[in-house]
Design the sequence.
């Protein structure tokens, strides 16, 4: 906490991490899946990614990565 206050005091700026909108979240999921070479039906990918974000911490790049981690370990397509 001290480091955060120190940065704000020294530089007068605040860093905000906002959640991506639905479109951006799904783009992140698609990008991670593609980078890992996962060939998954787009509709299935989106549907499961949206279920995942409802069950785990909402939309974020971290949630997208965790979803693709799970998908990679469990997908047998």
Sequence:
């Amino acid at each position: 906490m001290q480091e955060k206050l120190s940065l704000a005091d020294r530089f007068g700026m605040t860093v905000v991490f906002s959640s991506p909108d639905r479109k951006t979240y799904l783009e992140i999921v698609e990008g991670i899946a593609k980078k890992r070479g996962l060939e998954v039906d787009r509709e299935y990918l989106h549907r499961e990614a949206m279920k995942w974000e409802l069950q785990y911490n909402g939309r974020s790049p971290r949630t997208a990565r965790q979803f693709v981690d799970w998908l990679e370990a469990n997908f047998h397509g």
User: Anything to note?
Assistant: The chain has a mean pLDDT of 87. Helices lie at 2-11, 22-35, 42-55, 61-74. The longest helix spans residues 22-35. Residues 19-74 form one domain.
